[in-house]
Every structure is written in structure tokens, then in C-alpha cells.
Write a structure and sequence with these properties.
heterodimer; A: mainly beta; 6-stranded mixed β-sheet; 4-stranded antiparallel β-sheet; globular; B: mainly beta; 11 strands
Chain lengths: ~120, ~120
């Protein structure tokens, strides 16, 4: 069975400061890992994904994440937060079995960006 | 590309009635579509997986007679909440995987969601 744990339900940062959203995963397989962002009243948008290539993954809007197998972590970072980054962020692990993978979502981290 | 739409975006209905939610892949053919349910301030829970032309596979604890899923074409899946009750009120989100060998097979494209309120 696979699972993800997002260690913080809520993170608040000042605009222009770094962002760190933490995620640990558990998977029986070599996992694919994703970060999705959900803005209010909008659909989920893929920020970045790890699929067993480079362990440092760069995504959209300046976000990146590093896959650390030894720590079973896939933390999301951004050097400088922007007001538009305020949203809900989900860490997701994929079960690769079958023709279409099942996604398991973390409980989400709400990012608040203050002036 | 890879846009998924849902209709309606929100619906209010009376207890005991049925509600149909549509999920469409607008610019690609979707081999598989997924239906999720999201409670307030909670994560997304997978309800069922549907492949075009075959019966949906429901997750444990999801009543298949309550939540009817039809995937009649490669661009359309529907979720019907039958005899809806207030506890069915939730945010329902669909996603689709694209029929293309060039695309990572497990990338899902999400619709904007449908908010259902049952009075």
C-alpha cells in the first residue's frame, strides 16, 4: 500500500521569503511522485513530477522538489514566495501497477503568503 | 492542451433526487477517467476508476448503486448521485489520463470540480 504524509497542514510565509512544504511517502514500488496546487474554485494543477529520472525536479512558477529515497521525502521548495502562490498544495504518490495509475493524495498544506 | 471540463460547476438539489455530473476531456482522448470526492479542508479520496466501454471499478466503501458511473466515449464520463442525501454534499472532481504513448501514463489532468449541495 502507498501513502503520503504532509507534515504541515498550514504554512505561512512572508512574500519574498523561501517556501518549504514537506512531504514523506511510503510505497511498495518505485514511486512516481507529484505536487499539485489547488487555487480556490480552480482545478488541480500539476506543479511538478518525479518519475525515476533526475532526483531534483523543477516545476512551474519557480517550484522545485527533491526526491530523497533514503529519507522517503519529496519536499517542495521555492526560493521566493509570491502572493499568487497562496493556495492548497497536495503531495501525491502514484501506484504504477496497471495501465492507468491510481493516485494517493496527501491531506494538503495550505500556504499563506503575507506582505 | 489536456483540458478537462466538468458540468455543472455547482448544483443544489433536494434530498431524494438524482444528480448527474459530466466530465469531458476537451482536446484529447481519455483512456481512463477517475472520480474523486473532496470534503472541506480534506484531501481527495478516489471513488472509482472508469475505462471507456467497461464497468467502473469502485474503491472500497463506495456504493456503486449510489454513485453510478458511465464512460460511454473516450471524451465523456458521467457520475450520477442517485437518491441524494445531505451527507452526499461534497466537491466532486474528475480526472483523465491521455491516450498517448508519448505522455507519462500516470499523469492525470483534473477538472475544476462540481460542488454538490443536497438540501
Amino acid at each position: 500500500a502507498q501513502s503520503v504524509t504532509q507534515l504541515d497542514s498550514h504554512v505561512s510565509v512572508s512574500e519574498g521569503t523561501p517556501v518549504l512544504l514537506r512531504c514523506n511517502y511510503s510505497s511498495s514500488y518505485s514511486p512516481s511522485l507529484f505536487w499539485y496546487v489547488q487555487h480556490p474554485n480552480k482545478g488541480l494543477q500539476l506543479l511538478l513530477k518525479y518519475t525515476s529520472a533526475a532526483t531534483l525536479v523543477k516545476g512551474i512558477n519557480g517550484f522545485e522538489a527533491e526526491f530523497k529515497k533514503s529519507e522517503t521525502s519529496f519536499h517542495l521548495t521555492k526560493p521566493s514566495a509570491h502572493m499568487s502562490d497562496a493556495a492548497e498544495y497536495f503531495c501525491v504518490v502514484s501506484d504504477l501497477a496497471g495501465t492507468a495509475s491510481k493516485l494517493t493524495f496527501g491531506t494538503g498544506t495550505r500556504l499563506q503568503v503575507t506582505l | 492542451g489536456a483540458v478537462v471540463s466538468q458540468h455543472p460547476s455547482w448544483v443544489i438539489c433536494k434530498s431524494g433526487t438524482s444528480v448527474k455530473i459530466e466530465c469531458r476531456s476537451l482536446d484529447f482522448q481519455a483512456t481512463t477517467m477517475f472520480w474523486y470526492r473532496q470534503f472541506p479542508k480534506k484531501s481527495l479520496m478516489l471513488m472509482a476508476t472508469s475505462n471507456e466501454g467497461s464497468k467502473a471499478t469502485y474503491e472500497q466503501g463506495v456504493e456503486k448503486d449510489k454513485f453510478l458511473i458511465n464512460h460511454a466515449s473516450l471524451t465523456l464520463s458521467t457520475l450520477t448521485v442517485t437518491s441524494a442525501h445531505p451527507e452526499d454534499s461534497s466537491f466532486y472532481i474528475c480526472s483523465a489520463t491521455r491516450r498517448s504513448l508519448a505522455v507519462v501514463k500516470d499523469e492525470q489532468f483534473f477538472g475544476p470540480g462540481t460542488r454538490l449541495t443536497v438540501l
